[in-house]
Backbone:
């Protein structure tokens, strides 16, 4: 009789430990006949009326205003979000670690300080923030979806975690990631798959799928995540939320855990950290607060780049618009309608193309394959786990590794295309009315609505900005309501075997899965001009809400 692989027993113990960490009076039965679970927490009876108010009625900026005025205590807010996160995990399997007691102790100390001084400890005082599992927190596991990493608590926190805690943020949960963290579906052999709160027929995406899903459920208002190939932006898009990928060097990345050999994370296309949120001003809150904390003092990879709040614009935006990307309904109509809305508001639109788009995407992929997936395979071997379907279908690993000469060649090509894009952006000055380059670029976040799974055959609109190292943000512009408007639902024809298999995962009535789903677009800024990008984003967010 053969024994089961080690990873199966480890997974069972881990899943049980997560449920055991949830107080019994917070445990619920999840309805099987309800597809959209975004409002489940408000009706299941676990939250008090005040906790529903705290977790449902504010974005992070609005909630902090109430906490800093003394309307709510840090502990009240923390308990409310611990409860809602516990409900989120039961409903959509989005968490990897729950450490509520630790969060309560931090909140109590903040309340004592506030009573004594009448002041918050920092700008994020009283704000619970969920962190992607790759963010290290001293004394807590960072399993990154791998059974081999269970019961191996981290000796030190990531630099960005230390910065956020010093600013007053309260860590309380870690969120799920896919095996490899290099695919756009969050599933692994430890915690299992994360479900989208809007519909079981829509992927939660990846690799920050847990972050996107818990924010959509409002088990967190800020889901800290990472992005090297869309891992903030695609989950933000697929979960109807906001997200920003800053340029490298803006936020501290030191001591965030990954799948690659030591040193590979500081070469090639760089991974960056950033938030998934419920509003544009929450994106600004996090990026600005961390940038103003002088992160270059704790992470030498951060540029000494003091944050400068932009002056009120006092003019219309100059917006580059990329129209040549192949899209499918209803993305095509939603994008066109929003462009008309922006134009109607008086903003200046300049047609642009996604210059070298496919080459930029291919170049990013080539960097991702540098070690051939050998590091991932070694970790899998330790617990006997196989590669997940998402990793196999993603097509990255296993592959042939490259040598140093090949790596240098990729780096040279990247630098060349970055220079060409720099000039291309500057050249838009010849097309604008005031002779200055465009402020930002608007384009689709994805060519189609998120599918049940996402084995992308093309991710050009996302990967291009990783290779160029430009900041890019996702923001919802229209919520699908088939009761008020007729939508067409089109998807690309299946090419790969994985895409043929996912066709069977769509519901018979595809429109039903997307009812109430917020569809987002993407806005891109110039390198390290996150302040300018976020200023423009807030203007366009306001337009989308009209």
Residues:
């Amino acid at each position: 009789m053969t024994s089961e692989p080690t990873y199966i027993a480890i997974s069972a113990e881990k899943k049980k430990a997560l449920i055991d960490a949830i107080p019994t009076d917070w445990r619920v039965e999840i309805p099987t006949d309800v597809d959209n679970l975004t409002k489940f927490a408000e009706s299941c009876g676990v939250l008090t009326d005040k906790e529903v108010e705290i977790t449902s009625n504010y974005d992070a900026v609005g909630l902090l205003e109430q906490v800093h005025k003394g309307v709510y205590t840090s502990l009240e807010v923390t308990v409310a979000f611990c409860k809602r996160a516990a409900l989120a995990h039961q409903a959509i399997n989005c968490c990897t670690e729950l450490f509520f007691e630790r969060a309560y102790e931090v909140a109590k100390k903040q309340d004592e300080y506030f009573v004594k001084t009448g002041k918050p400890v920092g700008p994020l005082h009283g704000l619970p923030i969920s962190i992607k599992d790759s963010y290290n927190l001293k004394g807590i596991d960072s399993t990154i979806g791998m059974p081999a990493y269970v019961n191996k608590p981290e000796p030190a926190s990531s630099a960005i975690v230390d910065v956020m805690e010093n600013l007053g943020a309260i860590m309380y949960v870690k969120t799920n990631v896919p095996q490899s963290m290099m695919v756009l579906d969050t599933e692994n052999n430890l915690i299992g798959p994360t479900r989208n709160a809007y519909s079981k027929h829509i992927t939660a995406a990846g690799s920050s799928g847990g972050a996107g899903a818990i924010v959509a459920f409002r088990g967190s208002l800020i889901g800290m995540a990472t992005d090297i190939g869309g891992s903030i932006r695609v989950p933000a898009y697929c979960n109807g939320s906001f997200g920003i990928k800053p340029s490298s060097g803006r936020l501290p990345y030191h001591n965030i855990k990954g799948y690659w050999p030591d040193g590979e994370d500081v070469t090639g296309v760089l991974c960056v950290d950033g938030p998934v949120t419920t509003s544009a001003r929450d994106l600004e809150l996090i990026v600005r607060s961390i940038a103003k904390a002088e992160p270059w003092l704790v992470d030498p990879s951060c540029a000494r780049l003091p944050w400068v709040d932009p002056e009120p614009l006092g003019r219309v935006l100059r917006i580059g618009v990329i129209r040549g990307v192949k899209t499918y309904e209803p993305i095509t109509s939603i994008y066109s309608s929003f462009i008309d809305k922006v134009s109607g508001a008086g903003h200046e639109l300049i047609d642009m193309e996604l210059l070298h788009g496919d080459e930029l995407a291919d170049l990013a992929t080539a960097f991702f394959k540098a070690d051939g997936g050998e590091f991932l395979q070694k970790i899998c071997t330790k617990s006997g786990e196989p590669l997940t379907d998402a990793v196999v279908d993603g097509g990255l690993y296993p592959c042939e590794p490259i040598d140093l000469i090949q790596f240098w060649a990729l780096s040279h090509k990247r630098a060349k295309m970055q220079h060409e894009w720099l000039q291309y952006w500057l050249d838009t000055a010849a097309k604008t009315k005031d002779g200055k380059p465009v402020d930002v670029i608007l384009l689709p976040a994805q060519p189609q609505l998120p599918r049940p799974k996402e084995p992308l055959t093309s991710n050009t609109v996302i990967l291009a900005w990783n290779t160029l190292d430009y900041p890019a943000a996702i923001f919802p512009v229209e919520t699908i309501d088939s009761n008020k408007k007729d939508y067409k639902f089109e998807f690309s024809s299946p090419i790969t075997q994985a895409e043929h298999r996912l066709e069977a995962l769509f519901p018979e009535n595809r429109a039903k899965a997307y009812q109430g789903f917020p569809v987002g677009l993407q806005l891109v800024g110039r390198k390290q001009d996150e302040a300018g990008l976020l200023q423009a984003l807030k203007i366009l967010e306001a337009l989308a809400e009209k």
